[in-house]
Design goal:
This protein is α+β, with helices and mostly antiparallel strands and 214 residues long. It is built from four helices and four strands.
């Protein structure tokens, strides 16, 4: 039999919920509840853990930052001192300790007088140090030498000892011996004197460094 309901839609009786539909609704509600619980755990539990670790890291960083800044300051100071040391080495590496050189020259003259190989002294001693790479001129030592003997071989002895001495380190070899004999004066001691030049030119800074004289 066919039933025709002519009542408006609002007044018609609603059909009941079937078990299948109820199960679907329950499953959806359970999924939504699970998602809500998972979101709450992420938002509250994990977030609190992350915040706690982040705060601990911030505290560690706050304690390490002054040490890092101090270390960086020491590194900058170390680089500055290295730069100064390099500059000083470059400056002092080109200089000659003339005080030491003159002491060595005086000691050499005294040694010769002690061994009777020669008796020498000097006048008008001049030293200079320049850096003219174009002319290969790096300085020199010049003096008027005097030998208290009529034997010119004493001058040669002195120049030989001079070339072989520690004084000559850093210098090029002296020129061959030459000179002139002064007038004999029996009233003076020594009575005969030879005059001879003492001239030595400096080697380049690179050569002096290679020789170990700087």
């Amino acid at each position: 039999m066919i039933n025709i309901n002519l009542l408006p839609e609002a007044y018609r009786p609603q059909p009941g919920i079937t078990p299948k539909k109820a199960a679907a609704i329950a499953a959806g509600a359970l999924v939504n509840a699970s998602l809500l619980a998972w979101w709450a755990w992420l938002s509250i539990g994990v977030s609190q853990t992350v915040e706690s670790k982040l705060e601990a890291l911030r505290e560690d960083m706050a304690g390490l930052t002054p040490q890092v800044q101090y270390h960086r300051g020491l590194e900058a100071e170390h680089r500055q001192y290295q730069s100064r040391e390099k500059t000083l080495d470059e400056i002092t590496g080109e200089r000659i300790s003339w005080t030491r050189k003159l002491d060595e020259l005086v000691d050499l003259a005294n040694t010769g007088s002690d061994t009777s190989r020669y008796l020498v002294w000097f006048g008008n001693l001049n030293v200079s140090q320049v850096s003219d790479t174009r002319r290969q001129d790096f300085g020199s030592l010049r003096a008027e030498g005097y030998s208290g003997s009529g034997n010119f071989a004493n001058v040669a002895n002195f120049l030989d000892d001079l070339e072989a001495s520690s004084f000559a380190q850093g210098f090029n070899p002296p020129a061959p011996p030459e000179g002139s004999q002064s007038k004999v004066d029996e009233e003076l001691i020594p009575s005969e004197v030879w005059s001879f030049p003492v001239e030595l030119s400096l080697k380049s800074p690179e050569e002096r460094k290679a020789d170990g004289t700087e």
